[in-house]
Write a sequence for this structure.
């Protein structure tokens, strides 16, 4: 039986690429019976009814999956955050980073609209965050709409990878993709002065061939809750804490009140940024206070 990858899901149809052509497929009833939904990014086996239509017979094991947006087998998450309009939010970025780390996806941070920074203090402010994230080990790209080369720097990163582009509305995700592949002509939207965010311009998930890889343009994360993350494992999704945890006196140290905690010692020594630790504490309490789901 032929095999391929689901490139797009729309209105109950799954568009499977075998490397040469796109086959419009439906999923078999057995998937619904077992509550399995095919996802964009799935590697599948299918049966062709004719040159253009077929049925998905089998979904191969996934490396990872996101439910909102619905996509599987992701290598990279390109997290786009604007320097201004909307204002850069390290708390929201750290929330995204935790969720991405928890799904075993490599995050790439892109800070857009750098060219709109007029104030020297604002620039220093952003530079400090960039330095902190790079020290932790994250790749950070600074994107200027006036300098296409700042976007083109992503080309080698995307090659041979499946990437998902994420970030809050209005930060320039569609603009970034249009710059990477001009013939896309994705709709972009202006920021609403009332809401401080752009309108959603993307309605379905689709893998687009860009720079020798596949990039998903998605409607964005509709849920940023730590639904499947336990408080005791949260520090594992902060790389700078994960690295230090083995040096703590107590196994299972939460890095909050325990004595001889390597993380708190690093924090006091200025080796962990204060804002990262504050976000960790905030997320920890949020998870602890989470109502049980049945």
């Amino acid at each position: 039986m032929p095999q391929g990858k689901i490139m797009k899901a729309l209105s109950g149809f799954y568009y499977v690429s075998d490397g040469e052509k796109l086959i419009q497929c439906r999923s078999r009833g057995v998937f619904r019976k077992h509550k399995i939904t095919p996802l964009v990014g799935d590697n599948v086996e299918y049966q062709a009814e004719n040159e253009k239509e077929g049925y998905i017979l089998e979904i191969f094991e996934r490396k990872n999956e996101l439910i909102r947006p619905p996509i599987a087998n992701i290598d990279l998450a390109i997290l786009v955050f604007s320097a201004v309009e909307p204002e850069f939010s390290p708390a929201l970025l750290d929330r995204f980073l935790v969720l991405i780390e928890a799904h075993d996806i490599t995050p790439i941070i892109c800070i857009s609209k750098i060219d709109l920074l007029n104030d020297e203090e604002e620039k220093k402010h952003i530079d400090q965050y960039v330095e902190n994230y790079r020290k932790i080990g994250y790749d950070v790209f600074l994107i200027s709409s006036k300098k296409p080369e700042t976007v083109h720097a992503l080309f080698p990163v995307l090659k041979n990878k499946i990437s998902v582009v994420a970030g809050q509305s209005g930060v320039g995700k569609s603009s970034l993709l249009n710059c990477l592949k001009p013939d896309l002509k994705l709709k972009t939207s202006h920021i609403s002065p009332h809401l401080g965010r752009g309108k959603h311009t993307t309605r379905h998930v689709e893998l687009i061939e860009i720079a020798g890889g596949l990039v998903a343009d998605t409607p964005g994360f509709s849920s940023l809750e730590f639904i499947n993350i336990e408080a005791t494992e949260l520090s594992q999704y902060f790389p700078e804490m994960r690295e230090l945890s083995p040096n703590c006196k107590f196994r299972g140290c939460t890095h909050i009140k325990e004595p001889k905690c390597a993380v708190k010692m690093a924090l006091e020594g200025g080796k962990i940024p204060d804002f990262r630790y504050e976000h960790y504490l905030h997320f920890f309490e949020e998870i602890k206070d989470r109502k049980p789901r049945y």
